[in-house]
Amino acid sequence: MVGGGFAGLQATKGLHGADVHVTLVDRNNYHLFQPLSYQVATGALSPAEIAQPLRRIFHDDVNVRVIMGEVTDLALDRHAIVIQPPEAGPEHELPYDSLIVAGGSAYNYFGHDEWRPLALEVKSLESAIEVRARILRAFEAAELEPDPQVRAALLTFVIVGAGPTGVEMAGQIGELARDTLRGDFRAIEPGQGRVLLVETADRVLTAFPASLSEKAAHALRRLGVTPMTDHTVTDVTSGAVELKDGSGAITRVPTRTVIWAAGVTASPLAGMLGHGCGAQVDRAGRVAVEPDLTLPGKPEVIALGDMVVLRDPRGGDPIALPGLAPVAMQEGRYAAKLILDRLAGRPTKPFRYLDKGQLATIGRGEGVADIHGLHLAGPLAWATWLLVHLFYLIGFQNRVIVLIRWAVNFLTRGRGARLITDGVTHRPGSPGR
Fold first, then answer.
1. Residue-level pLDDT at 233
2. Residue 420 domain-assigned?
3. Residue 80: which domain range?
4. Average pLDDT of 22-37?
5. Tell me, what's the pLDDT at 422?
6. Same domain, 144 and 184
7. How confident is residue 428, by pLDDT bands cut at 50, 70 and 90?
8. Which residues contact 101 (CB under 8 A, 6 or more apart)?
């Protein structure tokens, strides 16, 4: 089992008590509840509250072994994977009878990897912590900055991509500036800062119905966020972002804090799988799998999550499922069932995704939900979002702590995790150490 994200976790759990030996390999020693990583980036939650050690999760599963390491090669011809341990040392080769690969994805900078250190993402825990530091350092630096133009740049925050992560991130920064930090500074008024949400499409939350997109945009504006739809990023530097609108006009926005939430590309493991069996790999790096999520010609290899598209048995274009946690979780449970059915000699029907709807939160008491055609907005959608995320959060202790943290934040408008912990003294927006 490669990957301890949502897909790998559910697949491993699905094999609980089965007469199989499972080796779970991940480059981290924890499972990250990624839908809440942006709350770490804005000081609403602490890192340990949305992560759980993998060894703790599978402590009682005697048939599960957890290994921390980076997969460097997939030797499909000899049924083995090669891993690099976390400390310098020789690589290890692990044989398998069945291989499940759920490597996930990373944000796509569309050929501009030089932007990556300047426009951080919040998909990983390490990056979310650095984003939190950059946001808070921006306010601290603005408090000391005598030049009004430089101060304005410090208090300008640009989020690229208006999907759920971008919308939620923009709303949280707006709430942080307008509510949480109000009265904390003497030389600046944090609420006068700008939060710009840049989106190439003509509306935010394009996967949602247009009516909910409009309601989300209104909620964002109430928090001081400016949705900049029909705008594309053309350049990112340490002091500014260049944007091009639909007419081709270029606008330069001075800023020291840029956050990237625009599009994803599959894990390099998908390319390895495609190369190993000759399967098609699309422009986003996703490998095409059979309807039962196995590799073409390699039924013992199963690929899951953001790194795959489903091959159309009728010869049409591959089917790309949404890059959402529910998709990965359902695929993980299906993979476990596929393994168990094979052991029992039972046939398994092709995988079918059950769409349970979409949720997004914007700020305090604001959210949107599309649940089987039922469109919700405002406090009811927000409460639904809270309940769903608490339910799926791993670990009883984490659920209790996050519930208490959210309740305190709601009542006090505070954020107890507003810490700058990396000791870096460079200005926000610089490439880092």
1. 97
2. no
3. 6-27+69-107+265-344
4. 96
5. 66
6. yes
7. very low
8. 2, 3, 74, 269, 273, 301, 302, 303, 304, 307
Look up residue 387 and give its two tokens. Answer: 């309940």
Q: In what order do the strands lie in the sheet with 156-160?
A: 119-120, 257-260, 156-160, 194-199, 225-229
Q: Is the pLDDT score of 427 beyond 60? A: no
Report the distance separating Cα 5 and Cα 22, nearest Å: 15
My answer on whether 165 and 208 are in the same domain is: yes
- Cite the DSSP H helix spans in 184-324: 210-222, 268-277
What is residue 15's predicted lDDT score, i.e. its pLDDT? Answer: 97
151-174 confidence digits (pLDDT tens): 999 999 999 999 999 999 999 999
CA distances to 132, 137, 346 from 421, in Å: 9, 11, 53
Instruction: Give the C-alpha separation, 158 to 152, whole Å.
Output: 13
Of 344, 369, 394, the domain-final residue = 344
CATH of the domain at 101: 3.50.50.60
The CATH number given to whatever domain includes residue 376 is 3.50.50.100
User: For residue 358, which amino acid is it?
Assistant: Q
Domain count, the chain: 2
Active site residues: 168
Which among 259, 253, 282 is positioned nearest to 270, based on CA atoms?
282
Residue 75 clears pLDDT 90, i.e. is over it: yes
The whole-number pLDDT of residue 425 equals: 42
DSSP string, 16-58: TTSS--EEEEESSSEEE-GGGHHHHHTTSS-GGGSEEEHHHHT
The whole model's pTM is what?
Answer: 0.92
* Beta-carbon contacts of residue 275 (< 8 Å; ≥ 6 apart): none
